[in-house]
Give the backbone structure.
Amino acid sequence: MDTVIAVIDIGMTNKKVAIYDRHLRMLDSVSRTFAPIMEGDLETHDLAGMEAWFLDTLAAFGRRFPISAIAVTTHGGTFVCVGEDGKCCAPCVYYTHEPGEEFQERFYRRMGDRRELQVSTGTPPLSAMINPAKGLFFLEERFPEAYARSRIVLNYPQYWGYRLTGKAGAEGTYTGCHTYFWDWERSCYSSVTEKLGVAAKMPFPLRDSWDVLGRIKGELAERTGLSRDVIVTMGIHDSNASLLPHLAKRSGRDFVLNSTGTWCVLMHPQENFGFSADELGKIVFFNRSAYNKPVKTAIFLGGMEYEAWTRVGAKAAGHALAEPSAADYRAVVEDCSAFILPEVVPGSGQFPGSVSRAVQDGVAYALTDIESGSSVPDFMRDGRRTMAALNLSLAFQTLVALERAGRTSGTDVFTEGGFRRNAGYNSILASALGRDKGSGGVYLTDISEATAFGAAMTAVAALEGTTPDALGSRFDIDYKAVGPMEGLGDFEKYRAAWLAQVAENGGKA
């Protein structure tokens, strides 16, 4: 058998190890979840437990496959402080922790004006500690002694590469993803890293995601049975890994990748970096692609919204929610009295200030009250109406995110991930976007495990001394066109009413 690639794919929920051949065919994969380690009231990542499982899994796969390279891809918003002993020296806190408004204000008083930081770093003010610079600021305040022991500060993918190779590095897709770490104008670490005292502790220069970080450490080769010649690549941010296959197959085409999971991440490759005046202060930012090009991006917690409302809706209806018919959607739209509003995590998406709730006939019902059963709107006792209202809400949030990401009438939209199985959601998008003459279409992609696939591309490129875009001929992507939903009635009236309810709820777009 030809050599293969192992991909360590670390999501917030699932951790995975997958095996690919050089033709980018997945041969096998395993996954598991890890409960957080509590540090007082803080959820922290179980780094030791994850590491032990990764090594055991690599050993098991190594007995079946000739592994020659390892690539790592991880979720965003996370970093690790490493001490003199090469181990984590401060808690690796979940980015979902919200230290409170006073903390957020202290951060910006010290680091600078929100809008000016967005102009220079491409980063918007997200809630909780989704901006990793806030995570460092939190450690400095909460764990000052541990923070002071930091010798190196590593982005999450490069932390795992460091544990595998003993070598420190950094690359652009993670450093440039809503971190406040990278100054786009000066092409260097930002003033925020200087104010946090970590600029000199962060590896530089930034390298490509398919560059070789190093070879696996001797003691890990012995533990796993892998060859000492196994290379480990630099690692890559998960959303940017998902984007790579489309950059290889759709070079020169204008598209937005709607990568859906816990987060819906809408990525629009661009040639130039910069915001218009009316975009500042809004949840739109620039990623750095694997080719160090700007990717205009808008996000919201679509998967989390979906899971929360389907769980609560099933409880209210007394049964699992079923797929609505076109008549169910038409009934909700024409009645124009029942709405589901964002955001489950306030400040995380396109409507900062909006708090998740349902509205019927002008009466608001808090998500927590619906969940407890103390106050439930009548429409949520009908599972199909609930699902129709939810899909409409998710589609409207997506439309705002698409606008923020710079979509124009000719831009194609590719839905990838969990929402590609949501027929109603995609048909609503196609209906809304197809109203413009000459509009780009909505398409479903058929890439399985797109994040791991993109990471595998970086490892193959490293082995062969090429770049990921040179691998486009090795795989096909089926872009399946989505037809509009027929008979939606006065769709725009319902959408306007939904936006008005969100604004009344404090979530001005």
Q: What stands out?
A: The CA atoms of residues 260 and 417 lie 5 Å apart. The longest strand covers residues 14-21. The two ends are 54 Å apart (CA to CA).
